[in-house]
Amino acid sequence: MDFSSFDTRLENTVYKNLRIGFIWASKISLITLLLITIVIWVDFIHTKNSNLLLTTINFAIQGLLFASSWLFFVHNKTLQHYKIIAAIYALLFGITWGGTIINLNNLGHAYVIVEIIGNLLFLVILLSFYTYRIAVYLAILPILIFTTWYSIEDPRFNLLFSFTKLAITLIIIESGRQLLFKWFTTRITQEHDNKRLLSELAQLSFTDQLTQINNRRFFDFAIDKQIINAKHHNTPLSIILIDIDYFKLFNDTNGHVKGDICLKSVAVTIKNSLLRSNDTVSRYGGEEFVVLLPNTDIHGACRVAKRIQQNLAILAINHSASDISHSVTVSQGIATWQTNQRPNQLINNADSHLYNAKELGRNQYCSA
């Protein structure tokens, strides 16, 4: 089971989270702009105010920006340079909302209204962009500058109050961002560790503990999958059933410890004889092994069987009790999948050819 590194997983999840945040922030912005536009038209419809139409046009331009951003992030589920895009969007978000604050002030709205909108925007920005600090501050700073400026301009507040408010706001925003980001990374770490543990457990459940190659359970799972692939893509599929010749005599003569070493050596030799990554060998049971060869016809399977035979001959594990050779040999039965053939039928076919190889004198492979 493949799983990405923690850094890759974190990077992907940061963008996924930002993307959702951008979509949400755009929706909130559109709704808020609409409500503000309705309110100011209700307030100023019966008064002569030259800024009303200009403000409405500015809001419409902002609304178009947020609608475009919404559509952009809905369709771009993956983005290579997302940090650059995130920074640009955050800056535009902050500048456009800063412009809204200016427009509201020009229309004569009170400082309290500016503060309410500013606090709402700080909350939206924090919840939407917290996974990327740069985006948070690019969005917040323009709004914070304008709201602070209006607090300085308000005769009710002195300079100390304005800058104290600015410092406290920054502290609250950064504390909230760190808290949210810590929760975020903790969840990603837990998810990553859980997937890693599941991967390790799956690997253990598919591994033969003695030989450290695939086990029977893996083969049963893999052959079903490969038959489905062969049927779907109309490609050949072959298996080789392998049995160590006179292995019982080897154990009786050399002992079970050396018998285990022999099994490990044969398993490694068979595995090393497979040249493609999708070719697999599994311990089928006892001294039997099975090789699964996707996209391989009978001729290709015979070449693999011959290579296994040659590599075992080079390995030359001493087997003094064998009637056919002084070293360990194997008999091999080869079968190729036929249309609508079930897994057990394919295995029985290979087993039949393995029996024939033994009947013909062992230390050979048989395919028909």
UniProtKB/TrEMBL annotation:
Record-linked CDD domains: GGDEF (cd01949)
InterPro entries per the UniProt record, alphabetical: Diguanylate_Cyclase (IPR050469), GGDEF_dom (IPR000160), MASE5 (IPR033444), Nucleotide_cyclase (IPR029787), Rev_trsase/Diguanyl_cyclase (IPR043128)
Molecular function GO terms recorded: diguanylate cyclase activity
Reaction(s) the record says it catalyses: 2 GTP = 3',3'-c-di-GMP + 2 diphosphate
Top-level lineage group: Bacteria
GO biological process: cell adhesion involved in single-species biofilm formation; negative regulation of bacterial-type flagellum-dependent cell motility
Class in the EC hierarchy, top level: transferase
Ranges where the GGDEF domain occurs: 235-368
PANTHER family: DIGUANYLATE CYCLASE DGCM-RELATED (PTHR45138:SF9), REGULATORY COMPONENTS OF SENSORY TRANSDUCTION SYSTEM (PTHR45138)
Descriptive protein name: diguanylate cyclase
Organism: Photobacterium carnosum
